[in-house]
Amino acid sequence: MNPTYLGFGVTPYAVIIWRDGDEAKSKTICYDEMEVQVALAMHADPKGFYHQYEPRVYYTAQREEMIA
Fold first, then answer.
1. Among 15, 55, 17, 45, which residue's Cα sits nearest to residue 32?
2. Residues 5-40: pLDDT tens digits?
3. What DSSP letter does each residue of 9-62 carry, written as one string?
4. Residues contacting 57, CB < 8 A, separation 6+
5. How far apart are CA 35 and CA 10, in angstroms?
6. How far apart are the C-alpha atoms of 68 and 54, rounded to whole Å?
7. Which pTM value belongs to this model?
8. What sign for the dihedral angle of Cα 4, 10, 33, 68?
9. How far apart are CA 32 and CA 62, in angstroms?
10. What CA–CA distance (Å, rounded) separates 60 from 64?
11. Cα radius of gyration rounded to whole Å, the chain
12. pLDDT score of 10
């Protein structure tokens, strides 16, 4: 996955694609690990909108640079 630059040249930390089977239903763009965890917590809430979908988290190259 190639990083996408949004706004003022900010690279997202991760992108979550919410899927229903093979179909993508929604997308969440996260700019740090805390936002990833908050989005995934919405999936864990049985009353939440995202509970019905399967999350796929795609980390960008920005995260890889932070780890190295």
1. 15
2. 555 667 889 999 999 999 999 999 999 999 999 999
3. TBPPSEEEEEEETTEEEEEEEESSHHHHHHHHHHHH-TTSGGGGSEEEEEE-HH
4. 14, 15, 16, 36, 40
5. 15
6. 29
7. 0.74
8. positive
9. 10
10. 7
11. 13
12. 76
DSSP-derived secondary structure letter, 2: -
Across 28-54, b (16+ Cβ under 10 Å) vs e yields bebeeeebbeebeebbeeeeeebeebe
Tell me if 43 sits within 8 A of 50, measured CB to CB: yes
- The rounded distance, in Å, linking the Cα atoms of 65 and 68 is 5
Judged by DSSP in three states, 6 sits in: strand
